[in-house]
Structure formats: structure tokens, C-alpha cells
Design a protein that fits this description.
about 600 residues; alpha/beta; ABC transporter transmembrane region fold; Rossmann fold; 10 strands
């Protein structure tokens, strides 16, 4: 999905809110109840001017002095009844629409998050994580404001405004016909400025997303930022981004403020003209004082409704832009999907068999450069195969294709005889465990971090996996043992400790196929020795594919595959490869101080 604003639709309209219909539909009953309370509250408001007219004409003007006190009491009781009904219906409306706003926003946020989680890595090559977070927070908050407040206020004031206008037309047809002609002339400029507000609203939301993307990226790599003393530079970069967002928001606010001022002033002026005509009618004796009082209140209701509607219109435009951005996320389709009729993987014991058959693959972001070219490899069940070679040789690509993060352009990959495209993603990935180079530790306890490998595992099983990964000792020494909170990204642990947590997680999962992606490359000699012991324990009784720059970690592999330029250039044991010379021998010579054999 492109993040460039020029590739996004600029004509956002309130129709974009129709994307919320699937989230509103399950709560039709609550929507109907909200509409009922909304209409009743609006009708209660419209009943007030009628009761006021009766009070003036019958309680103050027409009544005899002796009966006036009783008349006034009855009319004030009627007015209080109208006020009480308005209060009750308004409270019920507020609760119902607030419930809807919270519920629909929660459902929308959950749906977007769950959908993004299922996107392939290709999605994140073109979409910044910070932008996704902005849409999950800022945009859903805008939607909540509209669904839970603004939309209800708009509908209520629309009913009140239409009702007040209808009453004014019925009670003062000649005058209000003139006023309506003026109002039509008022609406036309409002449409023009409304379009400007729409475009600026979308641009403002995009600039806020840009700021969020910068913050997410920098805060996620704060040690690097601080080590290069780039705090001031990054703060200045974020400041420029927020200033861009501020300037765009101010342009939007300026146009919207002018729109509001114009609509209210022009509408109020038109209705004051009608009110002036009404006072002339009272002086001429054509209408009563109560009639004029009723007209005044209807005018106030109508003008207030127009004022609120002009504000709500701006909120609707912003929420429409937010909804459009959220719908873009929900519309994103991962190119890696479950097959329509998945084929079950056969039961295995002692490891899975892997086969690459003449595979050619290009990353979507680099379509002209092959990451793998005519790559063929067979890994027998229960064996350990090491992939070595220079950076960019395609080693990590082999692991990513096995996990089916991407689909190959040509050739085929099978796991236990089943093509990866024909297997259900959950079953396929459930059969594979991975220990990455940069071990992921979540901001929770040590126990839950290891249990992530198999969420239904018991505490005893988690501890057994930790012991097998040589992690039990240091975990037990933590302040609260296995219940110790490890901090965001495991900041309280050393690199070797994080790696052993990752190994324990993979061992708890107990997959038949284990992928080790340079699992010791970032460790010191002492940590590497301990982690190497943990890895050797993890590799027993399963198929293992190891990627390593440090050749000491692959000496015990059943077979070493040497890769370069997206293909295999040699294969054999360590001794065989050193004896033959070539790329592996040169790599070994640099690391072990060996004299390479003559080619």
C-alpha cells in the first residue's frame, strides 16, 4: 500500500463513513433505540415553544386576573413536564450513542489490528509501523467521536432544525419563504468551503501519521540514537514533522472557522430579517404576542441547530478521512493466503524433510534482483544442514521462504512431501521453530516469554524447556525468578540471556524443523559457549537448518551448503570443503587461521 499522499484519493466525503456499516449492523437494536430517544428528545425541544405560546396567550394575556394565577401554575407545570421529558430522553440518547461509539470503535480497532497481523512482510516493506499505529489510535478516536457523539448531535439538531423551520414556515409562510430563498444562497458558498475542509482534513491526518511513524522508528532504536549522540537531530526531525502537521491543521481550522462564521452569521441574518417582519406583524395586530414569542424560540432553535450542524459537518469530514484510511488497511490483501482446500501435513517423528526444487525468487521491493536463482536443496529428516556464505548470498531468504512469508516466482518447496502453497499456514508454521539473530523478548515475565512457544504449556513444561536451553540458572537468579518482568524488548537481560530465552521458547514448541538464523553472531565468547550448548540440545532429534557467519557453530553439521549470489556453489562436510579450497576454504582460513588448499 502506497504511503504517498498523491496516491491516495483526495475527494474524501461523508460517504466514506459507509465503510463503518459492517461494524454498525450487528447492533441494529441499539441503533434503533438511539434513534428513538434522539427523535423524542428533539420533539421535546420543539414542544417548548408551543407551550411557551400557550403560556403567554392564555396565562398572561387572555386570562382574567382571578384565574391568571391558576392558569400560570398549570402552564408552568406543563413546561416542567416538557423539560423533564427532554432531560430523560437526552440522558437515554447519550448513554445509547456513547455505548455504540465505544463498542463500534473497539470492534473496528480489533478488526484492523487482527487484519494487519495477518499481512505478509511485503506489506511492511511499504507501510511504516508508526503509520499503522497512528491509524489504530488517532483515526479510531476520530471515528469514536463521531459515532459516539457528533453523529447523534448532528441527527438530533437536524430533526430540531427541520422541525423548527417547518413550524416557522407554517406559522409565518410569507416571511419564511423569503428567508428560505436567502438560505439557499447561503448554502452554495458553504459547499465550496466544505470541499476545502475535506482535503485539508485528510492532509492533516496524514501529517500526524508521519509524526507517529518517526517516533515509533526512533524510540524503537533509542540505544543507537543515543550512542551516536543524535538526540537533538532526531528531536529536530520530529519537530519539523509536528510543525508540518500543525501548519496543515491550522489551514484546515482557518477554513473551517471561516465556514462556521459564515454559515452562522448568514443564517442568523436571514432569520433576523424574518423576526423583524414578525415584530411588524405584532404591531399591526396580525399575530399575537405569544405567536411572536413562539417564533423567537423557534428561530433560536433553528439557528442553534445550524451552528451545531456546521460544527458536526467538520467532524464528519475528519471522521470520513479517518474511516477511509482505516478501510485502506482492511482492504489490504496479503499475497500469501491459505489455500482454498488445504492439504494436511503427514505425521512425522524425528524431524521433517525439506526440498527446494529449482526455486527462483525476487523480493517485491527488488523485482530486478534475484535473491535466489535456480536454487535446489534437499534436507533429509533428522539431519542438520548449515548454510554459509557472504552477506546477500540468500541464506536468510531460504528460511523466510520455508516459513512462507513470501511465495516463490518459480520452482517449488515441499515440507514432508507437501507443497507449501497447499498447506494451511497455521499448520505449516506450527511445524517450524525459529531462533532469530535478534531474539525477541516481549514486555512480560520470563515465564510468559518462554510459554509464547506453546501457550497451553504448564509451568513445569516451561521450566523444563528453560533448563534444556541453559536458561534456568540465570532466570532463577532474577529478583522474582520466572515471574520477573523483563522490560520492553528484554532490556534487563544480556544478549546471551535473551538468546537462551528464545531457544527455550523454540524447544517448548518442540517443532520437527528448527531454523537457526545466526543465533550466536552477536554474542561474546563466554555467552556463545553457553548458547552453543543450548543450541546443540535444541537440535537433537529434529531437522535443523543453521545459518552462521561464525563457522565454529557449524562444524558438527551433517552437511554444509556454501551459498553465493543466490545459488549453491559447494556442499560437503567441513573437512571436505576445506580440502577442496574455494569460497568456504577462504572463509575458514580467515576465521581459523588455516592455509587454504590449492584450487
Amino acid at each position: 500500500m502506497a504511503s504517498d499522499e498523491t496516491q491516495r484519493p483526495a475527494g474524501t466525503t461523508p460517504r466514506s463513513l459507509s465503510g463503518l456499516l459492517p461494524f454498525i449492523r450487528p447492533y441494529r437494536g441499539m441503533v434503533a433505540l438511539s434513534c428513538l430517544f434522539l427523535v423524542l428528545a428533539a420533539l421535546s425541544t420543539l414542544a417548548f415553544p408551543v407551550a411557551l405560546k400557550t403560556l403567554i396567550d392564555q396565562g398572561l394575556v387572555a386570562a382574567e386576573p382571578g384565574a391568571r394565577v391558576m392558569q400560570l401554575r398549570e402552564h408552568f407545570v406543563a413546561l416542567f413536564g416538557v423539560a423533564a421529558a427532554l432531560g430523560i430522553f437526552s440522558a437515554a440518547r447519550f448513554y445509547a450513542v456513547s455505548w455504540l461509539g465505544e463498542r463500534i470503535t473497539a470492534d473496528l480497532r480489533n478488526a484492523v489490528y487482527a487484519h494487519v497481523l495477518r499481512q505478509s512482510p511485503e506489506f511492511f516493506e511499504s507501510t511504516k509501523t508508526g503509520e499503522v499505529l497512528s491509524r489504530l489510535t488517532t483515526d479510531t478516536t476520530l471515528v469514536q467521536t463521531v459515532v459516539g457523539s457528533s453523529l447523534s448531535m448532528g441527527l438530533r439538531n437536524a430533526v430540531m432544525g427541520i422541525g423548527a423551520l417547518a413550524a416557522l414556515v407554517v406559522t409565518n409562510p410569507y416571511v419564511m419563504t423569503q428567508v428560505l430563498v436567502i438560505l439557499v444562497l447561503v448554502v452554495l458558498p458553504g459547499i465550496y468551503f466544505g470541499r476545502r475542509v475535506r482535503k485539508l482534513s485528510r492532509a492533516s491526518q496524514d501529517r500526524v501519521a508521519d509524526s507517529s511513524a518517526i517516533a515509533a522508528e526512533v524510540l524503537g532504536e533509542i540505544p543507537v540514537v543515543q550512542s551516536y549522540v543524535q538526540e537533538d537531530r532526531e528531536a529536530a526531525r520530529f519537530d519539523r514533522s509536528t510543525e508540518d502537521a500543525f501548519r496543515t491543521a491550522i489551514r484546515r481550522t482557518r477554513v473551517r472557522a471561516f465556514l462556521v462564521a459564515f454559515m452562522i452569521s448568514a443564517t442568523f441574518g436571514a432569520l433576523l430579517w424574518g423576526l423583524y417582519q414578525g415584530t411588524q406583524a405584532v404591531l399591526a395586530g396580525r399575530i399575537s404576542a405569544g405567536h411572536l414569542g413562539q417564533t423567537v424560540v423557534f428561530v433560536i432553535i433553528f439557528v442553534g441547530a445550524v451552528a451545531v450542524l456546521s460544527e458536526v459537518w467538520g467532524d464528519l469530514l475528519r471522521a470520513a478521512g479517518a474511516t477511509e484510511r482505516l478501510m485502506e488497511l482492511l482492504a489490504a490483501q496479503s499475497p500469501v493466503l491459505d489455500p482454498a482446500s488445504p492439504q494436511s501435513l503427514p505425521a512425522v517423528r524425528g524431524g521433517s524433510a525439506v526440498r527446494f526444487d529449482d526455486v527462483t525468487f525476487h523480493y517485491p521491493s527488488r523485482p530486478k534482483q534475484a535473491a535466489l536463482s535456480h536454487f535446489s536443496l534437499e534436507v533429509a529428516a533428522g539431519t542438520t544442514v548449515a548454510l554459509v556464505g557472504p552477506s546477500g548470498a540468500g541464506k536468510s531468504t531460504v528460511l523466510q521462504l520455508l516459513l512462507r512469508y513470501y511465495d516463490v516466482q518459480s520452482g517449488g518447496i515441499t515440507l514432508d512431501g507437501v507443497p507449501l502453497r497447499d498447506a494451511a499456514l497455521a499448520e505449516l508454521r506450527g511445524r517450524i521453530g525459529i531462533v532469530p539473530q535478534d531474539s525477541t523478548v516481549f514486555s512480560t515475565s520470563a515465564l510468559e516469554n518462554i510459554r509464547y512457544g506453546r501457550p497451553d504449556a504448564s509451568d513445569d513444561e516451561v521450566i523444563a524447556a528453560a533448563k534444556a536451553a541453559y536458561a534456568h540458572e540465570f532466570i532463577s537468579a532474577l529478583p522474582e525468578g520466572y515471574g520477573t518482568y523483563l522490560g520492553e524488548r528484554g532490556v534487563r537481560l544480556s544478549g546471551g540471556q535473551r538468546q537462551r530465552i528464545s531457544i527455550a521458547r523454540a524447544m517448548l514448541k518442540n517443532p520437527p524443523l528448527l531454523l537457526l538464523d545466526e543465533a550466536t553472531s552477536a554474542l561474546d565468547a563466554e555467552s556463545e559457549r553457553v548458547v552453543q550448548q543450548a543450541l546443540e540440545a535444541a537440535m537433537r532429534d529434529r531437522t535443523t537448518i543453521v545459518i552462521a557467519h561464525r563457522l565454529a557453530t557449524v562444524l558438527r553439521a551433517d552437511r554444509i551448503v556454501v551459498m553465493d549470489g543466490g545459488g549453491i556453489v559447494d556442499t560437503g562436510t567441513h573437512a571436505e570443503l576445506v580440502a577442496r579450497g574455494g569460497l568456504y576454504a577462504r572463509l575458514a582460513a580467515m576465521q581459523f587461521d588455516l592455509q587454504p588448499a590449492a584450487a
